[in-house]
Automatic annotation (TrEMBL):
Taxonomic source organism: Sphaerisporangium flaviroseum
Swiss-Prot/TrEMBL keywords: S-adenosyl-L-methionine
Lineage: Bacteria, Bacillati, Actinomycetota, Actinomycetes, Streptosporangiales
Family matches, as InterPro entries: SAM_HAT_C, SAM_HAT_N, SAM_OH_AdoTrfase, SAM_OH_AdoTrfase_C_sf, SAM_OH_AdoTrfase_N_sf
Domain of life of the source: Bacteria
S-adenosyl-l-methionine hydroxide adenosyltransferase N-terminal domain sequence ranges: 17-162
One Pfam family, short name: SAM_HAT_N
UniProt KW DNA damage keyword: no
Family: Belongs to the SAM hydrolase / SAM-dependent halogenase family.
Protein's name according to its UniProt entry: SAM-dependent chlorinase/fluorinase
Gene3D superfamilies, per the entry: Bacterial fluorinating enzyme like (2.40.30.90), S-adenosyl-l-methionine hydroxide adenosyltransferase, N-terminal (3.40.50.10790)
Domain S-adenosyl-l-methionine hydroxide adenosyltransferase C-terminal per the UniProt entry, residue ranges: 187-275
Amino acid sequence: MRPRSYDVQSPGVTSVITLLTDYGLEDGFVATCHGVIISIAPEARIIDVCHLVPAGDIRRGAAILAQTLPYLPAGVHIAAVDPAAASARRSVAVEAGNRVFIGPDNGLLSWALLAAGGARVAYEITNADLFRTPVSPTFHGRDVYAPVAAHLCAGRKPADLGPEIPLERLLSLPAPTARLAEGAAEGEVLSVDRYGNVQLSVTADDLATLGIHVGDTLAVSMGRRQITVPFRDTYAAVPPGNLVAFTDSAALVAFAVNSGDASQRLGLPPGAHVRLARVGMA
């Protein structure tokens, strides 16, 4: 998918901290992070972006953060999705636009950094004076990210966090691919949400460029499988149990089953290749 630019340069609210994690809601992990932040920066406004990212799913976390970012006030954005949490991977703080992103250097932040206009400067988080101690090797969200974000809201500068890192040394996820070729849009599954909707890297504008509009029928190729899917304005435009393609709230093409699960129906995991054309043009 071609990187999308959003206007995230509006006046910032420096007391805002957002949280995106895979911690779930069954335990006290999220509340613990809230408590650490408030104990250091009592005036901080905390926005919970999502805590139900599938465990360790960096790609899903990256997609949620990047697609939510345009609607969040400027501030400090914590992202904690890390299947290698107990490893020696470093923690980073990255400035982009008038925002600071905090998280593991595992690619999780990379799509949001692009959405924010691109990273300007990055720091490795090493200043232990700003950590909660002792630091758990498996809970950096509580002991590193939360207190560091709170200290930033309380007036500390990102340069106080540790040494600067060359931007080219930050780990990045490969950008989702999408291209127009031979009358078709070729892309990949970007993510699958909790409803089983399958979001593609293909945009509604891509389809419009091909002359495909709401009301048409899509010829969908998924490897050796080929099916036809109606392209409608919402999943409710087809009877319950039927498959439909529509433009989702991120302006991306998605598959859904009305009152069902498209991911189970299609068996399309994130990264799977998909080709879309209008019936009669495939």
